[in-house]
Design goal:
Helix 3 runs parallel beside helix 9, helix 9 crosses helix 12 and helix 19 crosses helix 24. Strands 3, 4, 5, 6, 7, 8, 11, 12 and 13 form a nine-stranded mixed sheet that branches. A six-stranded parallel sheet has the order 20-19-21-22-23-24, with helices on both faces. A hairpin with a 5-residue loop joins strand 17 and strand 18. It has 723 residues and is of the alpha/beta class. The two termini are 56 Å apart. The protein is built from 27 helices and 30 strands. The radius of gyration is 28 Å and the shape is globular. InterPro entries: YkvP/CgeB_Glyco_trans-like.
Length: 723
């Protein structure tokens, strides 16, 4: 009922007159919720607004859009950091979303830990405003708060926190270069850390903290605040309060000025605003920069290569250098090894020793993502020696010309396990997943990687494209495109063999979409047969599958615990809710269950992929359900293949074909009552004996592996190419 009401409330906002009224009511409710927590520090808000305010005025400004512009009501809360951890926080102010959520594990600041405060003070979870509210009331009473940056800590009073916030705001507004003036000349390790408007979630500050934790006392960092949102600037001020090696400035000084003022041999690390790189990557380029000037591989937001460094045909002073393999998938750098020599570094994160003259290079095992496109650049006068670029391989030939890198296709063959010699094709597996970290958690991404690895074991070259990369220009060099049809339709490229594999959302597939592909597969035998008849064209059944290099029994002892792995999907999923209501021992692993089930039932918000096989194998049973359209059309979830391949047992809603595929290893239910009876009974009595389960598991690994599916896909592509 709550889910239905939530949907009706949201849909009503699309009605013009009613929507305006509901938005007004929303803001009133947000304000009321925030006001009753006592979280608002009016002195702190006044620092940001430049004038005194009452708590009511501050809250009104915040809920009417100030939250989206970086206005913060409390120095311990960073808006985008909180919203990234909570469902619906992109629709409502993050502070409100925090207050109505389970606050035990939500981080609110890069320099103060709300979860640590909750662990040290359990009563804070029941306090108005949760851990943040409890901590700030303590600060108002004169207690200190433990701030942390890397390995450094400092107990700070409210007054010290406000002074640090004031200093950060003044540094930004006045464009003060006081930090820049004191920065060079006296340190052996200098870091220039630029921020911009896209650095809105505090990640850049957390990364800098971790980088400095690996540095020495003679390290120093200049944080250039630029156009960073106000709450991020304030967090930078708190970072400087904790770590005296950090100075702040509003405007970044030219790197050339810092170099000119620094002794030869100073390690200089530069990060461009908006660059997304983890601390391990930054530390790697810093270590490499002590040997030779080095940069991280620059990826665009689409996941394709923005630049692997600048290369030129005739590398002499005044030559124009061009970005290497711009617009190609990252996989095309595999044959270069760990690094590639370049004419000049072209990276948002780079490091070198001041005065270094060695050949620069790009690290290929570590990446940085940043918006914007690289541009050709004239090489400086000191460039006088050719810089070899190597060759990309993977069916490509590379020529470095004065006009830029020229990539052409050349043909190779490979030998299959059965002894046949076949063409070595370039494949692109295309998914609807977003690029970067957001897409790594998608099941479609893991599925695509599994198919890619299996095709590579057959001697093929494979790249996996996230949704933003599916229109990359370099796709013209691909022989085969395999589109995994998930939640969004993807137009096929104009060239090559175009395959479609429908693995979900069958209710959205149209004849027009299918007609654009040369070969169509579907992960449901009954749906494939019906679609073939309906559209008068072949639709081949090709079920989902499992990665047998990961999902295989390890001998882990079976427990009596039920396990569910997955997201809440914005609804109270019966496969989780009903067992918990029945008192079953269920442990839930997923990112957005707060507000739907008790916190005690949430084992973790994420399970590393390498831990899933053992989790499945050891569970008394793994619970599973399907989207209604998937269930109706006979699309069996790949999770069931994974569970059974790992030696596990599953309980799932009924889908045509499950009994024939998995035998007794998967028990099905047709109603909530049947589900409750299954999970509260003797689990061992539901399933076959262990030796029978072992035989079922072995059959799934043999018949329904990524390798088996890759062999089918390759045969289909070769048949099409051979005409």
């Amino acid at each position: 009922m709550r889910t239905l009401l939530r949907r009706l409330w949201r849909s009503s906002r699309s009605v013009p007159a009613l929507g305006a009224l509901l938005r007004t009511l929303d803001r009133a409710w947000w304000a009321r919720t925030i006001r009753h927590t006592g979280l608002v520090d009016t002195d702190f808000v006044a620092l940001q607004l430049g004038r005194p305010v009452t708590a009511a005025q501050a809250i009104r400004r915040y809920v009417r859009g100030g939250h989206a512009r970086g206005l913060s009501l409390n120095p311990l809360v960073l808006e985008r950091l909180v919203s990234a951890q909570l469902p619906d926080a992109d629709r409502v102010p993050a502070l409100y979303a925090y207050l109505v959520a389970d606050t035990a594990e939500i981080s609110t600041s890069p320099v103060w830990s709300a979860p640590a405060h909750a662990a040290a003070h359990p009563d804070a979870l029941r306090s108005p405003g949760g851990p943040v509210g409890d901590a700030w009331r303590r600060a108002l009473r004169g207690e200190t708060l433990p701030l942390r940056a890397g390995r450094r800590t400092r107990d700070a009073t409210r007054e010290e926190i406000l002074d640090a916030a004031r200093g950060a705001l003044v540094a930004h507004e006045t464009g003060s270069d006081a930090g820049a003036a004191a920065f060079p000349g006296s340190v052996a390790d200098a870091i220039v850390w630029r921020l911009d408007a896209t650095d809105d979630d505090g990640t850049a500050l957390s990364v800098l903290s971790d980088v400095l934790a690996e540095g020495h006392d003679d390290s120093a960092a200049l944080v250039c605040l630029g156009a960073a949102p106000a709450d991020v600037r304030i967090a930078a001020g708190l970072l400087a309060l904790v770590d005296g090696r950090v100075a702040l400035t509003g405007v970044a000084p030219p790197v050339a000025d810092i170099e000119a003022a620094s002794p030869l041999g100073t390690l200089l690390t530069v990060r461009a605003g908006g660059a997304r790189a983890c601390a391990d990557a930054v530390n790697a380029v810093r270590a490499a920069g002590r040997q030779r000037p080095s940069g991280l591989l620059w990826l665009s937001p689409t996941g394709t290569i923005a630049s692997a460094g600048l290369v030129a045909g005739d590398v002499t002073a005044g030559t124009t250098a061009h970005p290497l393999l711009h617009g190609f998938p990252r996989e095309d750098l595999a044959s270069f090894g760990e690094a590639v020599d370049v004419a000049a570094i072209d990276s948002p994160v780079r490091a070198h020793l001041v005065g270094a003259a060695e050949t620069p290079r790009t690290l290929l095992d570590h990446t940085v993502t940043r918006r914007g496109a690289p541009a050709p650049r004239t090489l400086p006068a000191e460039i006088t020696t050719p810089r070899p670029a190597g060759a990309p391989g993977r069916g490509l030939a590379l020529e470095i010309t004065d006009a830029g890198p020229v990539v052409t296709r050349h043909r190779e063959t490979t030998t299959l396990p059965d002894g046949r010699t076949v063409p070595r094709l370039r494949w692109a597996i295309r998914t609807a997943a977003p690029a970067g970290g957001a897409g790594r958690s998608w099941g479609d991404t893991h599925f695509a990687r599994g198919i890619a690895t299996a095709l590579e074991r057959l001697g093929q070259y494979v790249a996996v494209d996230a949704r933003p990369a599916t229109s990359r220009a370099s796709s013209a060099l691909d022989d085969v495109s395999l589109t995994l049809r998930g939640p969004h339709p993807l137009a096929p490229p104009p060239t090559g063999v175009r395959m479609l594999w429908i693995i979900s959302h069958p209710d959205e597939i149209t004849a027009e979409e299918v007609a654009r592909f040369d070969i169509v597969h579907a992960a449901s035998a009954p749906w494939a047969a019906q679609a073939a008849e309906r559209w008068a064209r072949p639709v081949h059944p090709l079920l989902q599958c499992t990665d047998t290099t990961r999902f295989t029994p390890s001998g882990a002892p079976r427990t009596a615990e039920l396990v569910f792995v997955g997201t809440a999907r914005g609804i109270a999923r019966p496969a989780v809710i009903e067992p918990l209501r029945a008192g079953a021992p269920l442990r839930v692993y997923g990112p957005d269950w707060r507000g739907y089930i008790a916190a005690s039932a949430i084992a973790a918000t994420h399970v590393p992929n390498d831990e899933l096989p053992r989790l499945y194998e050891a569970a008394g049973a793994v619970l599973n359900d399907h989207w209604p359209a998937m269930q109706r059309e006979g699309f069996v979830s790949n999770r069931l293949f994974d569970v059974v391949a790992a030696g596990g047992r599953a309980i799932s809603d009924d889908v045509e074909g499950i009994a024939e595929l998995f035998g007794g290893a998967v028990r099905t239910y047709r109603s909530e009552q049947e589900l409750r009876e299954l999970v509260t009974g003797d689990l061992d009595a539901l399933f076959p004996a262990e030796h029978d389960l072992s035989a079922i598991s072995a059959r799934i690994r043999e018949k329904h592996s990524f390798d088996a599916r890759a062999a089918t896909l390759l045969e289909a592509a070769l048949t099409r190419l051979q005409g």
